[in-house]
Amino acid sequence: MKLTSKGRYAVMALVDLARFNNINPVSLRDISLRQGISLDYLEQIFSKLRKKEIVQSVRGNQGGYVLNKKAKEIKLTNIFDAVDEKIKTVQCKKESKKGCNGKSTKCLTHNLWDELENHINDFFEKKSLEDLVQDNTERRI
């Protein structure tokens, strides 16, 4: 299983945004500087997040981005879905009778990896942006 930088950066950027969301819209430039993520890459990520209505853009001098929902309503699975990040531990499709190894049957450990994928996705479904903001705040105290 591999979580790409796109998924990791989307979560990092949204946690950063959620920390400052109550004050003013947050510019991607500020997120870029604080998190060390390329501004061009953030623009690509936020375009996808905006299309999935996780964030909305605010124009003007004090413009930037704000969350479209409360941080506790945005689950990590919503973020991964918005940026086309798939959490998969097996290469084959679940409904396929053909296995990952190209043979007509699934490998001996297929059910193990499938179960792990379910646990991971359940974990991400239970975690919200608010959880990550609070966790980060508690560690700084």
Q: Would you give an account of this structure?
A:
There is one protein chain. By secondary structure, this protein is mostly helical. It has one domain (5-140): Arc Repressor Mutant, subunit A (Orthogonal Bundle). 52% of the residues lie in helices and 6% in strands. The chain is built from six helices and two strands, in the order αααββααα. It has helices at residues 5-20, 28-35, 39-51, 76-82, 110-126, 129-140; strands at 55-58, 64-67. A two-stranded antiparallel ribbon has the order 1-2. Helix 1 (5-20) crosses helix 2 (28-35).
Helices and strands, with pairings:
Elements: H1 5-20, H2 28-35, H3 39-51, E1 55-58, E2 64-67, H4 76-82, H5 110-126, H6 129-140
Antiparallel strand pairs: 1-2
Helix pairs in contact: 1-2, 1-3, 1-6
Question: Can I get a quick summary?
Answer:
The chain contains six helices and two strands, in the order αααββααα. The protein has 141 residues and is mainly alpha-helical.
Order of helices and strands: HHHEEHHH
- Poorly predicted ranges (pLDDT <50, ≥5 residues)? none
What fold name stands as the CATH topology?
Answer: Arc Repressor Mutant, subunit A
Mean pLDDT: 87
Q: What is the structural class? A: mainly alpha
Give the termini distance in whole angstroms. 33 Å
Rg estimate, integer Å: 18 Å
Name of the CATH class: Mainly Alpha
Number of domains: 1
- Net shape: elongated
**SS element count, helices:** 6
The CATH homologous superfamily name equals: Winged helix-like DNA-binding domain superfamily/Winged helix DNA-binding domain
Approximate strand percentage: 5-15%
Largest sheet, described in full? 2 strands, antiparallel
Helix content: 40-55%
* Beta strand count: 2
Question: Order of strands side by side in the largest beta sheet?
Answer: 1-2
CATH architecture assignment name: Orthogonal Bundle
